[in-house]
Design a protein that fits this description.
The chain has 90 residues and is an alpha+beta fold. It has one domain: Alpha-Beta Plaits (2-Layer Sandwich). It is built from 2 helices and 5 strands. A 5-stranded mixed sheet has the order 4-1-3-2-5, with helices on one face. Helix 1 runs antiparallel to helix 2. The longest helix has 12 residues.
Length: 90
Amino acid sequence: MYQAHIIISGKVQNVCYRVSCKEYASSLGLKGWVRNSDDGSVEALAQGEKKIIDRFIEWCKKGPPQAKVEEVKITWQEANGPFNGFSVIK
């Protein structure tokens, strides 16, 4: 199992990014979470098969229609902790 920590910057808050992100990640069968950061970015942690996480990252680079993604930073990590699905956290 792989894990990616993802930081998405640009116009990504107040555009349904988190909800859309959760829906897409869940549809792929990924586990983890997504949340808004105080600096205006969105942060996500995704666990699953690498090729599935890669598909998720490609989605993160676009986001929902209202988003304007400027940058996506990915840090691959060793998977830690079990998650029950994919959730939006505050």
